[in-house]
Amino acid sequence: MSTVAVSRVPARLARFVLHMFRPWVYATYGLLWTLALESSAVSLTGTPWRPAAATWVRVVSVILALLFLRMLDEQKDLAYDRVHHPDRPLVTGAITAAELRGGMAALTAAVTGLNAALSSAAVLLILSALGYALLLAALEHLSAALRDRQLLDLAVTCPVQVLLGAYVYGSLAAAGTVAADWRGGVLLALCVCVLLHYEFARKTAWETPPGARLYSAGLGPRRSAVVTAAFAAGAVGCQIVLFLPDGPAGLLPCLAAVLPAWGLRRFLRARRGGWPLPAATGFVAGTHLALVVRAVMLP
Predict the structure, then answer these.
(1) Residue 62: other Cβ atoms inside 10 A
(2) More confident residue, 142 or 283
């Protein structure tokens, strides 16, 4: 590769990030998700929570990990995108696989350096999430079942998010900020349920366009909608288990459940189109924001 070509790589990666990662979306999600998880974990110990320098290390690490996953997905979905998304940057040549791998290496070095300032446990936890994602990509390359069966693929993909949550919670435990107990597992389950609600919502529709990878294509629209709503209900159940001892004020995040309830009603009555995504997006943002507000409000 020529010196001129090398000098263009940062600009090409920047355009990829703006086009495919949309920082205003993913960075906002990473910020709210990390703050919600950390603040809830700390507040459950009875200790007032306020963000510290380590908080922002975790926030930046999660956002960079999400970018790593987006770059990896772009490569492992190349064959599918050539047919169904011919405008994607890797298909059009706006970016190359080698450039994406270089970006992933730089991100790995960045999160390693950031978390070295926290603890060796934090480094191992964040790298385990990235390592599992790489292993999963290799398995999908070898297994047609993983590539073609949506629910099976989701089952093996979901642990990546669990590992990222374990990184946030585990780094808090390693720092002595929280004492790991059963509530950590419920808190991680809460976050996973919120994420899976959105994942199912965006892939649930009455009609399936040719080649579309929708959960409703295999489950049927009604069952897919019920599963979508069930994940929201699961998140609310986790909140009740964790926060009911704090009284009515502790259940503030449960108010966001009105959005998936409205989304389910609208989807079933419409009998066409997809799940109303503003309801799903609002539930994700509203739940995480309410968790942070709850933690800040507690004495």
Answers:
(1) 26
(2) 283
pTM of the predicted model, to two decimals? 0.92
Sign, CA torsion 94/131/119/288: positive
Residues 49/292, Cβ–Cβ less than 8 Å: no
Instruction: Average the pLDDT over 68-75 and give the result.
Output: 92
The two three-digit tokens of residue 203, written as one number: 């892939």
50: pLDDT strictly greater than 80 = yes
Question: CB-based contacts of 231: which residues, under 8 Å, 6+ apart?
Answer: 193, 194, 196, 197, 200
Angle at 232 between CA 154 and CA 240, to 5 degrees: 125
Structure tokens at 205: 């529709």
CA angle 53, 242, 126 (to 5 degrees): 40
Question: How deeply is 299 buried, as exposed, middle or buried, from its count of CB atoms within 10 A (0-12, 13-18, 19+)?
Answer: exposed
Return phi, psi of residue 274, to 5°.
Answer: -115, 180
Q: Which amino acid is at 290?
A: A
Longest dimension (CA), the chain: 64
- From 77, 69, 96, select the one nearest 13 (Cα to Cα): 96
pLDDT at 3 over 60: no
The pLDDT of 163-191, averaged and rounded, is 95
**Measured distance CA(273)–CA(292) in Å, rounded:** 33
Q: How far apart are CA 213 and CA 17, in angstroms?
A: 23
Question: Cα separation of 258 and 25, whole Å?
Answer: 22
Token pair for 284: 């994700």
Crossing angle of helices 182-201 and 23-43, in 10° steps, is: 150
